[in-house]
């Protein structure tokens, strides 16, 4: 078996694929490259942590009163080693696409010297920085569910300190770059310009929160205001789906504010918005701007906001040996793991095709929003939609089957170390849309 943690082997003559980032997009793309290109390449994954964080289930753990850090990390070193993929635990500091090199600093212990590594193919899968530090008052007054630290802070507040006051849930304004302009993923379609990075989570948290309030005799949806900088919340799900969701939410008693501009500041009393409005709230659960990492800004492979520019084959047009997958890619809008999953397959095929290992390079990206959000008490909503990009599908289902699918997907992901077979998604579609609901 391969060693657990190795430095990239420089004597290996095979083309070197360097994957930056080892969460959903990075792990997935490394596995797909190995699947399609076989032993034609050596592959190295670099991440500052050696565990995958299973982000989508953080809200569920919080509302079920479990510390999300206890259940949502999966080791990636052994699964990668089992596929003959090297792992380097390091902080990526710089990319030089002209010299085809990356500089990183090993970060197992402080004081490491920076190293430079050359690549033949580079796949950037570094996600984004979630800019809580740009929301005034967040540290003192804000909560969220975007990582286990935030999730645990919210769990403790909710289950130990909550005084029964009003609750506000929503997103800060997302600043999308110009890197996906002109792309046409469906005939006459586009990658739209989004004002919020990912609004499945606020919808999920609002519905789960109402259920939690009821279960704890603290009221219900009437205590919750949901807000969005956009024209419509979760508009990437498609107008029909959002109309359905808003209709249901309105009848349940949720309050809704749209086009708020941005979050101006959080205070003890509530949320103040850029457009001058405000909402009173004891608990403020917010989703920040998804911003590109600082060291990516200004690179010749990055767009006006630092997101990595690609075409719909996930390849950079100026540096064809550079690809991007997942949240860091300019075309990934909304910032959804399911879209990164679609992109990982594309990159695996393209690199294998380049190397003569695969005759068919596969189809370019035709993004589909797949989202299964928890609603509490064993129920969830399921969305499959591509209408925002110019497609014709908009499906919303709610009930127990989507919840079972959400839990089953996580079990399958852990058991198969991230190698979720295509039939996993197909089966989910079939179950959620046709058989049971
Ligand atoms: C609450 C919540 C619920 C969600 N639910 C869903 C859902 O139901 N379905 C769905 O499809 N999506 C969902 N998402 C979105 C999903 O979590 C993201 O789209 C997904 O995590 C993106 O994967 P990624 O690998 O591109 O980026 P990330 O998950 O952000 O991973 C980036 C990796 O890069 C590493 N990294 C970053 N910078 C450096 C550096 N300089 N040096 C070394 N390593 C670095 C990080 O350590 C990390 O491992 C949800 C998001 C949230 C917040």
Q: Provide the helix percentage.
A: 25-40%
The CATH architecture category of the domain at 16-61 and 72-129 and 291-354 equals 3-Layer(bba) Sandwich
Q: Could you give the count of β-strands?
A: 22
CATH homologous superfamily name of the domain at 16-61 and 72-129 and 291-354?
Answer: FAD/NAD(P)-binding domain
The bound ligands are: flavin-adenine dinucleotide
Radius of gyration: 21 Å
Q: Numbering strands along the chain, what is their spatial order in the largest sheet?
A: 7-6-5-2-1-8-19
CATH class of the domain at 16-61 and 72-129 and 291-354: Alpha Beta
End-to-end separation in angstroms reads 45 Å
- Low-pLDDT residue spans: 1-7
Q: For the report, how would you describe the main beta sheet?
A: 7 strands, mixed
Structural class: alpha/beta
Strand content: 15-25%
> Mean pLDDT, nearest integer?
94
What's the CATH topology name of the domain at 16-61 and 72-129 and 291-354? FAD/NAD(P)-binding domain
C-alpha geometry: globular
Please count the helical segments: 10
Question: What's the gist of this structure?
Answer:
With 437 residues, the chain is of the alpha/beta class. It has a domain at 16-61 and 72-129 and 291-354: FAD/NAD(P)-binding domain. 28% of the residues lie in helices and 23% in strands.
Walk me through what this model shows.
With 437 residues, this protein is an alpha/beta fold. It has a domain at 16-61 and 72-129 and 291-354: FAD/NAD(P)-binding domain (3-Layer(bba) Sandwich), CATH 3.50.50.60. The chain has ten helices and 22 strands. It has helices spanning 24-37, 58-63, 77-82, 138-141, 148-161, 200-215, 239-252, 337-354, 400-415, 422-435; strands spanning 16-20, 42-47, 51-53, 73-75, 86-96, 101-106, 115-118, 121-124, 129-130, 142-143, 167-171, 224-227, 255-257, 263-266, 270-273, 278-280, 283-287, 290-291, 322-324, 369-376, 379-385, 394-399. The protein has a seven-stranded mixed sheet with strand order 7-6-5-2-1-8-19. Strands 10-17-11-12-13 form a five-stranded parallel sheet. A hairpin with an 8-residue loop joins β6 (101-106) and β7 (115-118). α1 runs parallel beside α8 (337-354) and α9 (400-415) packs antiparallel against α10. The longest helix has 18 residues, at 337-354. The relative contact order is 0.15. Mean pLDDT is 94; it is low at 1-7. The structure holds flavin-adenine dinucleotide. Flavin-adenine dinucleotide (FAD) binds at residues 21-26, 47-49, 55-56, 58-59, 91-92, 125-127, 145-146, 198, 200-201, 293, 326-327, 335-338, 340, 371-372.
């Amino acid at each position: 078996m391969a060693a657990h943690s190795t430095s990239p082997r420089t004597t290996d003559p095979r083309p070197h694929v360097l994957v930056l980032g080892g969460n959903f997009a990075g792990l997935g793309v490394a596995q797909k490259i190995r699947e399609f290109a076989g032993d034609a390449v050596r592959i190295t994954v670099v991440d500052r942590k050696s565990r995958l964080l299973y982000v989508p289930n953080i809200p569920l753990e919080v509302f079920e009163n479990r510390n999300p850090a206890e259940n949502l990390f999966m080791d990636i070193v052994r699964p990668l080693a089992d596929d003959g993929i090297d792992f380097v635990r390091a902080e990526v500091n710089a990319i030089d696409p002209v010299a085809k090199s990356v500089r990183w600093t090993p970060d197992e212990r402080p004081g490491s010297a920076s190293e430079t590594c050359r690549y033949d193919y580079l796949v950037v899968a570094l996600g984004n920085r979630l800019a809580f530090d740009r929301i005034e008052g967040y540290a003192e007054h804000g909560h969220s569910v975007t990582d286990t630290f935030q999730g645990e802070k919210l769990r403790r507040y909710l289950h130990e300190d909550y005084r029964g006051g009003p609750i506000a849930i929503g997103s800060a304004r997302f600043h999308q770059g110009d890197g996906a302009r002109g792309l046409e993923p469906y005939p006459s379609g586009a990658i739209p310009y989004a004002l919020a990075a990912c609004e499945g989570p606020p919808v999920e948290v609002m519905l789960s929160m109402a259920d939690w309030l009821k279960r704890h005799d603290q009221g219900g949806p009437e205590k919750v205001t949901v807000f969005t900088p956009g024209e419509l919340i979760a508009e990437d799900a498609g107008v029909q789906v959002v109309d359905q969701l808003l209709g249901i939410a309105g009848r349940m008693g949720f309050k809704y504010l749209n086009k708020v501009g941005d979050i101006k500041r959080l205070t003890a009393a509530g949320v103040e918005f850029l457009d001058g409005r405000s909402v009173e709230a004891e608990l403020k659960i917010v989703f920040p701007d998804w911003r590109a990492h600082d060291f990516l800004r200004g690179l010749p492979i990055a767009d006006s906001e630092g997101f990595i520019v690609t075409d719909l084959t996930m390849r950079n047009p100026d540096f064809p040996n550079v690809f991007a997958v997942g949240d860091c890619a300019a075309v990934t809008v909304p910032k959804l793991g399911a879209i990164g999953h679609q992109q990982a397959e594309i990159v695996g095929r393209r690199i294998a095709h380049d190397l003569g290992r695969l005759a068919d390079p596969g189809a370019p990206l035709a993004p589909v929003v797949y989202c299964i959000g928890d609603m509490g008490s064993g129920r969830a909503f399921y969305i499959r939609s591509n209408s925002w990009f110019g497609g014709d599908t908009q499906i919303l289902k709610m009930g127990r089957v989507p919840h079972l699918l959400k839990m089953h997907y996580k079990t399958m992901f852990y058991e198969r170390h991230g190698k979720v077979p295509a039939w996993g998604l197909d089966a989910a579609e079939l179950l959620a849309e046709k058989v049971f609901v």
